From TrEMBL, chain A:
<dbReference type="GO" id="GO:0000467">
    <property type="term" value="P:exonucleolytic trimming to generate mature 3'-end of 5.8S rRNA from tricistronic rRNA transcript (SSU-rRNA, 5.8S rRNA, LSU-rRNA)"/>
</dbReference>
<dbReference type="GO" id="GO:0071038">
    <property type="term" value="P:TRAMP-dependent tRNA surveillance pathway"/>
</dbReference>
<protein>
    <recommendedName>
        <fullName>S1 motif domain-containing protein</fullName>
    </recommendedName>
</protein>
<dbReference type="GO" id="GO:0071035">
    <property type="term" value="P:nuclear polyadenylation-dependent rRNA catabolic process"/>
</dbReference>
<dbReference type="GO" id="GO:0003723">
    <property type="term" value="F:RNA binding"/>
</dbReference>
<dbReference type="InterPro" id="IPR012340">
    <property type="entry name" value="NA-bd_OB-fold"/>
</dbReference>
<comment type="similarity">
    <text>Belongs to the RRP4 family.</text>
</comment>
<dbReference type="Pfam" id="PF15985">
    <property type="entry name" value="KH_6"/>
</dbReference>
<keyword id="KW-0271">Exosome</keyword>
TrEMBL record, chain B:
<dbReference type="GO" id="GO:0000176">
    <property type="term" value="C:nuclear exosome (RNase complex)"/>
</dbReference>
<dbReference type="GO" id="GO:0071028">
    <property type="term" value="P:nuclear mRNA surveillance"/>
</dbReference>
<dbReference type="InterPro" id="IPR036345">
    <property type="entry name" value="ExoRNase_PH_dom2_sf"/>
</dbReference>
<dbReference type="GO" id="GO:0034475">
    <property type="term" value="P:U4 snRNA 3'-end processing"/>
</dbReference>
<keyword id="KW-0963">Cytoplasm</keyword>
<dbReference type="GO" id="GO:0016075">
    <property type="term" value="P:rRNA catabolic process"/>
</dbReference>
<dbReference type="Pfam" id="PF01138">
    <property type="entry name" value="RNase_PH"/>
</dbReference>
<dbReference type="GO" id="GO:0003723">
    <property type="term" value="F:RNA binding"/>
</dbReference>
<dbReference type="GO" id="GO:0000177">
    <property type="term" value="C:cytoplasmic exosome (RNase complex)"/>
</dbReference>
Length: 331, 241
């Protein structure tokens, strides 16, 4: 938790006390495994007879295993490593990430993804908009800017590291690609857990939520990804949808569809729920985000007031209740 | 002037081997990857770390390790007289270099090839010992940013006035013109990474003064460890499972 953000909340005396009690309770109910935290240069106790594999965040000094990072010691069989908390994103193959294009270069785009280097998305490792599988020609190269431009927010998957150490991405499915009409939020990556599902369609809100493993969260208007386009008959489909939309929804200046006010409000509501949870340092899951959004409705708190002190305190208290009940179920 | 009174106390009421009150905090800058504030008595410093990130100037990129950059600045309001300080004057360039070299010695740069780490330290209140305070703040900020380091570098100064070794000089004692020894120490490895003195001292006295500064470094290292450990624990239990 960044205390800084909480200081800026201007809690009154009662709220401060309530928040402190809630946080104290969270500390009390947290499992004892959380006690295995280390700071830089702490010794990590290991059993040398069993043999030790030193993983990330460890080094050896005088025959002892020493941490080189602040974090939590994790042990898998013989492997001992330190899981960091507040650190930059560490990619793993298959991660779903959200990133921002910073450069259109020859045959590839460079993306900022909160990693120690920029990621590379090759033109050859993404589906073309027409959906046809073929060699990329020089014309395709010239038309790269029509696919992604600088400052576009896109969603992709980590393909792997190249032998020169650069990180490559791929976007070989319709669910990946450019993200339009929505909000991008950045949170510390440790708050997002790797799961089976990172794309969520929140049906009640008509909103898409993408929890990128790199800590970039996209909240945008729901887009239908029809499987038909993948087969290659995308051309007519797109025209159809354009026609139908021109009847129902007013068009903006550049001929884009305008989002309804309701959807905009829902996007802000979900975004503020994410902001509150990340300020408090709670892990971000769809359930948690939805619960926070729902609570704001049931408590009659306006979207703009969700970032106020009262809602933060209430969210913290709700989290205490949730974790208590989880413990009770287990015990 | 009498810097150590007959009663054995210094001008600000400390004993010769007593440090000023220290307060360290992690998380002072919202948008930085890691940040910290560090106070020693009236000296107050904040540090922010950005990175490891893509190298901004491709010409500076190093193929097998990270590039470490450091910028030291002093706020206009940090000293008694409000002076406009031009960026990049001799003093701040020298201090930037000192801090950069000290931090580079403890960062495991080979783990982050082709990337860059920016360290920004700013003095908010200057009351002697800014050099040490900056290094301590930078260490905290780097640890907060999750950058791998072989050990925590901590720094402390000691001086020699009225034929007494004094720990952690304040501005008044610093400006007395006596010797001022600043030591940077890797406390676990027991290695000195920084040693500065711009005066003359007999060797036997120098050793005493340096030993005193090393003791101070160790005390600070303990405190910084506590702060980091507490912060990590808090982040972990808040995150939950």
């Amino acid at each position: 938790m960044r205390d800084l953000h909480l200081q800026q909340l201007r809690l009154n005396q009662t709220q401060r006390v309530r928040l402190q009690t809630a946080l104290q309770k969270l500390q009390d109910v947290s499992p004892s495994s959380a006690a295995a935290t280390v700071a830089v240069a702490d010794n990590i106790p290991v059993n040398h007879e069993d043999g030790v594999l030193k993983g990330h965040g460890t080094s050896e000094l005088d025959g002892q295993v020493v941490a080189t990072l602040c974090g939590v010691v994790e042990r898998v069989n013989k492997l001992v490593y330190v899981r960091t908390l507040r650190a930059r994103y560490k990619p793993e193959i298959g991660d779903i990430i959200v990133g921002r294009v910073i450069e259109v270069a020859t045959k590839h785009w460079r993306l900022e993804i909160n990693f120690s280097q920029d990621a590379v998305l090759m033109l050859s490792s993404m589906n073309l908009p027409d959906g046809i599988q073929r060699r990329r020609t020089a014309t395709d190269e010239l038309n790269m800017r029509s696919i992604f431009e600088e400052n576009d927010v896109i969603c992709a998957e980590v393909r792997g590291f190249q032998h020169d150490g650069s990180l490559h991405l791929q976007a070989r499915s319709l669910k990946y690609g450019k993200l339009k009409s929505g909000q991008l939020l950045t949170v510390p990556p440790y708050l997002i857990k790797r799961r089976k599902q990172h794309f969520h369609h929140l049906e009640n809100y008509g909103v898409d939520l993408i929890l990128g493993c790199n800590g970039f969260i996209w909240i945008g208007e729901h887009v239908e990804t029809s499987n038909g386009v993948m087969e290659g008959d995308g051309g007519n489909k797109v025209e159809e949808s354009n026609e139908s939309s021109s009847h129902s929804v007013p068009l903006g200046e550049k001929g884009q569809r305008l989002m309804s006010l309701e959807t905009r409000q829902h996007i802000c509501q979900i975004a503020n729920a994410v902001r509150v949870l990340s300020t408090l340092g709670f892990s971000l899951t769809t359930e948690g985000i939805l619960e926070a959004a729902k609570a704001s409705i049931s408590l009659g708190i306006n979207t703009k007031d969700m970032l106020g002190a009262e809602f933060h305190v209430q969210t913290a208290e709700r989290e205490v209740g949730r974790r208590m009940s989880l413990l009770r179920k287990k015990g | 002037m009498e810097y150590v009174k007959l009663s054995g106390f210094r001008l600000d009421g400390r004993r010769p081997t007593e440090m000023r009150h220290i307060h360290a905090e992690v998380g002072a800058v919202a948008n930085a990857d890691g940040s910290a504030s560090f106070e020693m008595g009236n000296t107050k410093v904040i540090a922010a770390v950005y990175g490891p990130k893509e190298v901004e100037n491709k010409g500076q990129q190093i193929g097998n390790k990270a590039l470490v950059r450091c910028e030291y600045s002093m706020a206009n309001f940090s000293t008694g007289d409000r002076a406009r300080r031009p960026k990049g004057d001799r003093r701040s360039t020298e201090l930037s270099l000192v801090i950069r070299q000290t931090m580079e010695a403890c960062i495991l740069t080979h783990l982050m090839p082709r990337s860059q780490i920016d360290i920004y330290v700013q003095v908010l209140q200057a009351d002697g010992g800014t050099r040490s305070a900056c290094i301590n703040a930078a260490t905290l900020a780097l640890a907060d940013a999750g950058i791998p380091m072989c050990d925590l570098v901590t720094s402390c100064a000691a001086g020699y006035l009225n034929s007494t070794p004094l720990l952690d000089l304040n501005y008044l004692e610093d400006s007395a013109g006596g010797p001022d020894v600043t030591v940077g120490l890797l406390s676990k490895l027991d290695k000195v990474t920084l040693l500065q003195m711009d005066a003359k001292l007999p060797l036997d006295i120098f050793e005493n003064v340096m030993q005193l500064a090393i003791e101070g470094c160790k005390a600070i290292a303990n405190l910084i460890r506590q702060v980091l450990l507490e912060n990590t624990k808090k982040l972990e239990y808040l995150r939950g499972t």
